[in-house]
Design a protein that fits this description.
Elements (H helix, E strand, L loop, with lengths): L1 E2 L2 H14 L4 H19 L6 E6 L3 H15 L3 E6 L8 H12 L17 E6 L11 H11 L4 E5 L19 E5 L18 E4 L5 H6 L4 E4 L1 H7 L14 E5 L6 H13 L4 E6 L4 H7 L4 E4 L16 E4 L7 H13 L4 E3 L1 H9 L12 E2 L3 H8 L5 H15 L2 E4 L5 E4 L2 E5 L11 H14 L4 H19 L10 H6 L1 H11 L4
């Protein structure tokens, strides 16, 4: 799914109005109706009180349309129009007239008795067009919304959130009902406190415009993931499914390579070999008998050498940063030519020796968490600068960069794919080791590096989405990712209508 910026979204609105021969008021009515239908489905109890806070721009107009439809459907509606929130637009004014014709009063100070959970605040102060800093009156209005015991639903974006720069204060939404496209700002780490959940509502914008308009940003939803999935053929065997080599482990960190090697095989590759120090030999052979094992060094790897040609290699999980291991990595990078995934200690070693980045084969996949990413690239002032730095870094070294976070980003060749799957259950030790194994296994099955990264990250997250239906986030561990991989694959295949 494409992610458009504010200018492109306005162009989509204009094209829709022109090509579909409708008015902006009609488009606003569509938006309000979609909000109304979503709210009606989520809150069927007619005792629910919807308290709308509307600005005077088009976002406020969307709110007015939804408020009118709820009132007509016999819900209890309270309407506050915040005059400091923008100048009245024609579409807002038209909807305000409809509100008055329907007999709904604004700013009426209506007081309803309500039980906890039955009060819903609807935030419709500002949309994507906000460019100016907020005045004190608006800041106070936002704080008043945030400090009440109510479910908060924002229309399109949380009011106060900027689309192209850092946000300091905004409505802290439980749900954001955004129109037609995901918005980049909704998925940035710095905005996490303002957004808990996002629902994308289709308001019928022009399909041809959406198809033909170029963007650097994409959202990996289930449809995008399915398009990159390669089902196993009916005549497959272990020789055709590829051989993955997983290199890592050191004394006290053998679990990392065990998780990664098992993830590679469970991703669907035919063979997996683990390369680790001798201290981990018995552990791996016992815990994962399906893997083949090569060893080097007693407690850490001192040399990387093997006499077969794997289809893909993952390296770094639990590797350690010993001087001998660093030299072994350098010697390995000078000669490696197969598809490569680099994680954990191997990333940290690269960050100390940035000139080694030039040794990496084209389209090598790096999988840093935020601190590892900072060590590789340097620090950034905000999320927008971080994204530009990632794009430049990926282009300079011709890499696929997987920036792990609550919403993981895959960056390559100037494009950014934001992953939709996963939840806080993945915030557990070993989760990244499993991800590297999955991606390496996909590479071994002849997925392209970009497809392996995008699909692998989605599959990894989907295991947690399925897992928390059966267990709490707090008890979900890295091994559970492996446990639920089969169900994740079944979910994808079912939606692809595959047997």
């Amino acid at each position: 799914m494409k992610i458009f910026n504010a200018v492109q979204i306005r162009q989509a609105d204009e094209m829709t109005v022109t090509k579909q021969n409708i008015t902006y008021n009609d488009l606003m009515e569509r938006a309000g109706r979609e909000v109304f239908l979503w709210l009606k489905m989520q809150f069927p109890d007619k005792e629910t009180i919807f308290h709308f806070f509307c600005g005077q721009g088009n976002n406020g107009g969307d709110g007015l349309a939804a408020a009118r439809l709820l009132q007509t459907d016999n819900y209890k509606v309270v309407l506050d129009i915040i005059e400091d929130a923008g100048k009245p637009t024609p579409a807002f004014t038209a909807n305000l007239k409809k509100i008055e014709e329907a007999g709904i009063q604004s700013n009426q100070n209506t007081v309803y008795e309500y039980e906890k959970g039955r009060l819903v605040y609807i935030d419709a102060l500002f949309g994507i067009g906000l460019t100016r800093d907020l005045n004190d009156a608006i800041k106070q209005a936002i704080e008043n919304i945030n400090n009440r015991e109510a479910i908060i639903v924002s229309i399109d974006v949380p009011s106060g959130m900027f689309m192209d720069r850092k946000t300091d204060i905004a409505v802290r939404s439980d749900v954001v009902l955004t129109f037609q496209f995901p918005k980049l700002a909704l998925y940035l780490p710095g905005n996490a406190s303002f957004v808990k959940e996002v629902a994308v509502l289709d308001i019928g914008l022009d399909n041809e415009f959406i198809k033909n308009t170029v963007t650097d940003f994409y959202f990996t939803d289930e449809f995008e993931a399915q398009s990159r999935y390669k089902p196993v053929t009916h005549n497959a065997h272990k020789g055709t499914q590829g051989h993955a080599l997983i290199i890592g482990g050191s004394y006290g960190k053998i679990g990392a390579i065990c998780l990664s090697a098992k993830a590679a095989l469970k991703s669907g590759c035919g063979l997996a070999t683990a390369y680790l120090p001798k201290c981990g030999y018995t552990v791996l052979q016992t815990s994962f008998p399906e893997a083949m094992v090569l060893t080097n060094g007693e407690e850490h790897i001192t040399q990387i050498s093997f006499d077969f040609q794997p289809k893909a290699i993952g390296i770094g999980m639990g590797l350690g940063q010993h001087q001998e291991t660093q030299k072994a990595l350098y010697d390995f990078l000078k000669i490696v030519s197969v598809p490569l995934v680099i994680d954990a200690d191997a990333l940290n070693i690269l960050s100390y020796n940035k000139e080694w980045l030039k040794l990496l084969p084209e389209n090598t996949i790096l999988t840093p968490h935020p601190k590892e990413l900072e060590r590789l690239m340097g620090s950034w002032k905000d999320d927008f600068e971080k994204i530009e730095m990632m794009k430049s870094f990926s282009k300079e070294y011709k890499l696929v960069l997987i920036a792990k976070d609550a919403y993981t980003m895959i960056v390559y060749n100037g494009t950014v794919h934001i992953n939709s799957s996963g939840n806080a259950a993945l915030a557990t030790g070993g989760s990244g080791d499993v991800l590297t194994g999955i991606i390496t296994g996909l590479l071994a099955q002849s997925y392209s590096p970009v497809d392996a990264a995008i699909f692998g990250v989605y599959l990894h997250g989907l295991t947690a989405d399925i897992g928390i239906r059966e267990t709490a986030k707090q008890v979900f561990i890295a091994s559970d990712i492996l446990k639920y991989m089969g169900k994740a694959y079944m979910d994808i295949e079912a939606k692809c209508n595959l047997k």
